[in-house]
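Re: folding output
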Amino acid sequence: MKEKSYGELMKIAAMKRNQKKDNFVQNLYIEILLSEIQLTSERERILQKIDAAIDNRDKKSFLQLTDQLKEINKRFGT
């Protein structure tokens, strides 16, 4: 079995580091995307409930839901 030279070992190590960086960035991107999807769907659900509260003239529910919407907007960064 042929042993690898120092240069080859350094190339392999560099490739492994790059692969780890790529995996980290990809996992971070996926996590951000999933978080955004979750917040968007939660926001849409609350907006629908707010519309229903307005239609039903339910002030108490409207105020509670708008507080929830404000909290989601904070988490969303808007």
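--- second protein (sequence, then structure) ---
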Amino acid sequence: MDWNAAIEHHREALKRVLAMLTAMAGLANGLAAGSAESGPSQAADGLSPTANRPTLPRHLHRAVLRLLRPAEAAARRLVAVAARGLVVTPQASAREGATPPPALRATSQVKRGRSRPPAGRYIGSCPATPHVPALPLFDPLPRWRARRKVTASSVPRISVPGLAAPFAIPAPPSPFDPLDATRLALRFAALARTLEDLPLAARRFALWRARLAARSQPRSGADAAGRPANTPIRARRIWPFRPGRPPGQRAARASARSHPVHAVLDEVHGLALWALEPTDTS
């Protein structure tokens, strides 16, 4: 099988899906097609009240998310396919006594609150971090014990005639309510960066697999699981994909009409499982 041709074919298909979603949301330049709201809510986030944030109507925001989730899942699986046969050597971490590079030390200091990061660039009118966010390598795990949110249909309206006015019942959510699309624009940027520089994302995935294999090897002074003595157990991901159907994938018997992105996700998911199969060394 020609893996390079399959990777390029599905990468171009995902690029077309991303271009369609960007045009659908109107976030090509970081601005939404709808109006941009400003007010006290933005001031609470640390932004000036006059700063404009892209917004989308609720129905359009939900429609874009329904197609963005399978596109991101397909891109993660395409990264796993591109990392097939890639060999990398993980470097020693700072916990093992090695000195981290200056960029890593600066990042750790920022996370601990020792210094403030430099002023970031702007994606359109959206303030962002100095770098484009990276696409996560792992699927979000399903919420096994998630409770269904119950929406209250009525509220008690207790009042004293002549002294207190009845409580005003809030209006139900409208499909045309403006929702903040800043995070949506950042997810578009992360997906575009992954598709443009697929070898870099593949190296990230191969480095994670190499570190996972290094942790599984027993070392001197370690227990049967390969951990040093008196080390607390920490849960780690050992498989990048979620069990069952990929995120955003429709069931085989779904009545709703599927989108081309679902066909791409179905094909790339099979290729990723094939690429991650352990090699037969017998």
